[in-house]
Structure formats: C-alpha cells, structure tokens
Amino acid sequence: MVLAPLACPEPMPHVSQDLDPPLVAVLNGPNLNLLGTRQPEIYGAATLDDVEALCAETAEPLGLAIDFRQTNGEGELITWVQECRGRAAGIVINPAGYSHTSIALMDALRATDLPIIEVHISNIHRREEFRHLSYVSKVATGVIAGLGIQGYALALAAMAELLAQEGEP
Q1: What is the DSSP letter of 21?
Q2: Which residues are annotated as catalytic?
C-alpha cells in the first residue's frame, strides 16, 4: 500500500524556479530492501519501491530533489554520507540496525554539518531495549519514529522547512 504524499499544492516560496532544487539524500540502511516481506506486522506491507515513490511524490511539490539509496553495508552507507558534503542540502536517513551500533556512522553524519532527519518506520522505543539507543539521534536535527513509511514524507516536509529557515536573512 502506498500512502499519499503530504499535500503541498504549489512549490515552496523559498525555492527559486530558476535554480536546481535543493538535493536531499534519502539513505536507507540494512534489511530495508526486505520491506513488505520482513516482519510486516512491524514494518507494514509497503516495499522499498513504495517508499521511494512516496518520497519522490512528496519531494517534488516541496521543491526538493532526492537521491534515494539503500545498502546493507555499513561502509557503503558511511561513504554515501561523506559524499553528501558539498553535494546535498540535507540528509533523511533510516539507519535501521546501524542506529544502535555504529559510532562511525554517527561521526560521518556529524562531519557533514548538514541538517539530518532520522526516520524509523517502527517506534524503536516500544521495541526491545537494545533498540532504544540510537547513536544517529545524537547528531540528528530531528527524529521521526513509529509512523510507518509516512515518516519519510513528514521528514521531507520538515527538511523543506529547515532549508527554508536556513535561507532566510
């Protein structure tokens, strides 16, 4: 099931129609390629393709471009984060299991000096104790958890607002 993107009838006023839209990296960690089949009672029936479609549909009316990626490899995810420096305006990240284990990912995110919104499909605070700690949360501008894949749409809307505030005098 694909949820409708958040309504935004016209481009955000802070986005110039003459320039390329700000790029937001939407990065996904391990096992998210299994969405729709892995524990649907926790993560729902939507697939990663559904999430990507929702992000694309949400980003366009917000005046954002997205670079949507998924990897099962910690090193590759860290490399993608590092590549955001000087390339992206912000990062939306679902670090999945690396949330709770990767200090290296936390350090890479901190080094970007970009706005970061952490997304979790499930509410990690209502799950096993080890999932309650997120190293990514320590460097994230904001965290959205427990709202299903709609959390991605909310994260993009919040990112558009953060970028608009950065552009204000």
Answers
A1: P
A2: 43, 120
Integer angstrom CA distances of residue 22 from 4, 126, 152: 22, 34, 17
Q: For tokens 């799950």, name the residue.
A: 127
Residue ranges of domains in the chain, CATH in brackets: 23-167 (3.40.50.9100)
Round to whole Å and give the CA distance between 104 and 65.
27
Percent of the chain with pLDDT over 90: 72
Inter-CA distances, 63 with 3, 56, 68, 143, 165, Å? 20, 11, 16, 22, 14
Q: What sign for the dihedral angle of Cα 53, 26, 64, 157?
A: positive
Q: The tokens 């995810």 sit on which residue? A: 77
- Return the DSSP state at 22: P
What are the tens digits of pLDDT across the range 11-37? Answer: 444 444 447 999 999 999 999 999 999
**What is the DSSP-derived secondary structure letter of residue 127?**
S
Name the 3-class secondary structure at 159: helix
* Helix, strand, coil tally for the chain in percent (to 5): 45, 15, 40
Predicted local confidence at residue 76, as pLDDT: 98
Given a cut of 80, whether residue 126 has pLDDT beyond it is no
CB 77 within 8 A of CB 113: no
